[in-house]
Specification:
With 142 residues, the protein is an alpha+beta fold. The chain has 2 domains: 1-32; 48-142, no CATH class. Helix content is 27%, strand content 8%. It is built from 5 helices and 3 strands. Strands 1-2-3 form a 3-stranded antiparallel β-sheet, with no helix packed on it. A hairpin with a 4-residue loop joins strand 1 and strand 2. Helix 1 packs antiparallel against helix 5 (126-137). The longest helix has 12 residues, at 126-137.
Length: 142
């Protein structure tokens, strides 16, 4: 089943309706993605970030528009933790415990091409990339 994308414009926000009928808030149209705040980390203070923290970032930058659904681009689905850890057609994109060897980090930083998000800028903020690196360094747990 092909995904259908509908963008509904409201007074202050956009909403993405996925093919499954799920609603996901998008960035405020008056702001760039860099200006749209990501919710506070869902993990307790002092704990390493969890997948829920990472999924907020992938939602903010609409990563699953390409890397989600029934036929994700390059075979990489970011829909859930298990799919992300499976990787792409080319292999793993997350190497637990080793952010520098993780293709996802290299793509987000632009040291591997194409840089992600593909339609950037805006790119992820340094803080967002650091959060992903911390998650991977801590073992990329769910």
């Amino acid at each position: 089943m092909k995904r259908h994308l509908k963008v509904l414009v409201g007074a202050t926000a956009l909403v993405l309706m996925t093919g499954a009928g799920n609603l996901m808030p998008l960035a405020n149209p008056a702001l760039g993605a860099q200006d749209t705040p990501v919710q506070k980390a869902t993990t307790p203070a002092g704990s390493p970030p969890g997948y829920a923290d990472i999924s907020q970032i992938t939602a903010k930058y609409l990563c699953t528009v390409c890397h989600g659904g029934a036929e994700p681009r390059a075979g990489l689905s970011l829909d859930d933790h298990k799919s992300m850890m499976k990787g792409s057609k080319r292999g793993p994109v997350v190497v637990p415990g080793n952010p520098a060897s993780s293709e996802i980090v290299r793509r987000l930083k632009g040291t591997s091409e194409p840089r992600m998000p593909f339609d950037g800028p805006p790119w992820l903020s340094d803080d967002e990339v650091t959060l992903i690196e911390q998650w991977i360094a801590a073992g990329a747990k769910e």
